[in-house]
Amino acid sequence: MVADRFDLMTWREVYERSAGLRDLAHELGERHEGASDLLADTFLAAYKAHPRLRRPTEMEPCRLVNHQIVTSLTESPEFAALHRETAGDPYTAAMAVLAQGAALRRMLRDCADAQERAERAQRSGRDARDAAAAVADALRQAAHDAPEDRAAPVPVTDAVQAAAEAAEEAEGAAREDARSAARALGAALPGVRAAARGAVVRAAEAARGEAALMRAWGVGPGELERMPFEQRARLAERLRTGRLAEWAELIGRFRQMADGERARKVENATGELIGVTLGDDLSRVIPSELAALGLPELRAVFAARYAAGELMLYDSQGEQSTGQGAVIACVDTSHSMYEAGPGGITREAWAKACALALLDQAREAGRDFVGILFAAADKLQVFRFPAGRPAGITEVLDFAESFLGGGTSYQRPLSAAAELLEEEFDDTARARGDIVMLTDDDCGVTEEWMRGWNAAKHRLGFRVFGIAVGTPRVAEADSVLDALCDNLRAVEDLTDVHAAADLFRVI
Prior knowledge:
Elements: H1 5-17, H2 19-29, H3 35-47, H4 64-74, H5 79-86, H6 90-99, H7 101-110, H8 112-145, H9 154-216, H10 221-226, H11 229-241, H12 248-264, E1 272-279, H13 287-291, H14 296-308, E2 311-317, E3 327-332, H15 347-365, E4 369-374, E5 380-385, H16 393-401, H17 411-428, E6 434-439, H18 447-460, E7 463-468, H19 480-484, E8 487-490, H20 497-506
Parallel strand pairs: 3-4, 3-6, 6-7, 7-8
Antiparallel strand pairs: 1-2, 4-5
């Protein structure tokens, strides 16, 4: 692969930081002398914006197997899809090399005979060059030893003849070994191409899968580019193996849904036109009403209709946020949340996906977000995400992957949420927060606690949303959760895009 010193410097840095690449190079190097060069070429093919291969005639015979493997990879029909994911991204290019590791092993194994013959051809070529050099030395010696007016002595002539015959024999052996290596490589070519195509497909799938995983967890391309190699590798491994890795698609879908609803909101504006109504808003008066002002005899009529609020106006419908305080998601992590909910997805995954979408919603609106994980009365964990600082992916993962286990208590998490909103009100005078209760259980509360709860709700003006996860009875009209919430729905409602969108539109 044609590469400049900056490309090679990038490869060396990636190689030094990736234990996986070093292990693969060591493993392949035990059976193939040019393994490190092969991995470097495979990386550069994926990394460079416009990869270009050298011509085979420029290569040493022992590197022709590498050349054919890299050629097969880059000429695969699927390579363009892989290259779109990896070009300019050292980490993703390195990941693509590792994803192709098994295929590289197989291709080198299939080309073992060709490689052996190529190395023999290279040795024969060296021998031929050495023999040619010996002929030249013999000729120079003969010219030196012979007197100017006499022929070279017979022993010198015999030495030159012997060197010439040895050179011719070595050159013939080199040609035959080169033809033999070419035949062996040609025989291995179909298998190499098939393995290369499969390797590129798997590498492209791995690259796309990791990119989708990062997007699902809200890690943007810009953040990834700034992230050190080792940190990015650890993050990718954590996302792939975490407790919610299987449900990353659900998490991403919720976050996209919330993002779509934010795009539909028109803050502090009248919104889209839906018809005509009556009123006194001069900014929305229809043109035919304004035309009356052009006639002196109709101006009094216009003024009378304006005073009575009977001017014809454009009617509109828009979205405007109502919450100002923090968004608090109380997520049930009792043992029953392990069970499957709609679609075979665990109740925990449904609840955490919704909570992470609410985190995005709060960040976009400039509101604090608090995640409260609860179970029994003695189990509570609070994760704060202030609006004034970025929400790091590590903190988000800590919140999403924590699980307490045990029973269920409503009073402890809701009291904690109310205390947080009161603290926020005392510090910043912000009221009208939103509490979202995500649970699969219905448990009682005391009358005394309920009186205090209602008083806090009246004083701070917060709203309470409830989502019953996997147990419809919790969302019934006579449930405790219904008595606590202003807006209650079942998680099954969230499988309907419009119902789920409504939740993110009003928060």
